[in-house]
Amino acid sequence: QVILVESGGGSVQAGGSLRLSCTGSGYRQNHNCMGWFHRPPGKGRDGIASVYTGDGSTSYRDTVKGRFTVSHDSAKNTLYLEMNNLKPEDSGIYYCALRERPGCKYNAAFSFWGQGTQVTVST
User: Fold this and answer.
1) What sign for the dihedral angle of Cα 86, 89, 92, 96?
2) Distances in Å between the alpha carbon of 4 and those of 11, 48, 87?
3) C-alpha span between 14 and 86 (Å, rounded)
4) pLDDT per residue as tens digits for the range 21-72
5) Euclidean distance between CA atoms 4 and 1, whole angstroms
């Protein structure tokens, strides 16, 4: 079975940085679409970034472009999200996810999810 585990969340002041990680197992590591989703407190979950492991191509939601960077280390089987210049609106739970269908975009439908990691950005 697919297992995704996020880590790296925490509390940070506005303008600070965090690096989230997601280790995965139970799926083929080649030509996968992996993504990051954000769920603000009391709101729904939105896709913010994706990476296609076949060629390293990425996509981002406009709200995080220029601040967040998604990457994947095949040797370590780990997905990363570098978050810079964090804002209070970035607070919430971050999930990593796996998509099995063609078409790798940040706002696509993903099939498997991790448990999430909490991020709190204070003013």
Assistant:
1) negative
2) 22, 17, 26
3) 5
4) 999 999 887 789 999 999 999 999 999 999 999 999 999 999 999 999 999 9
5) 10
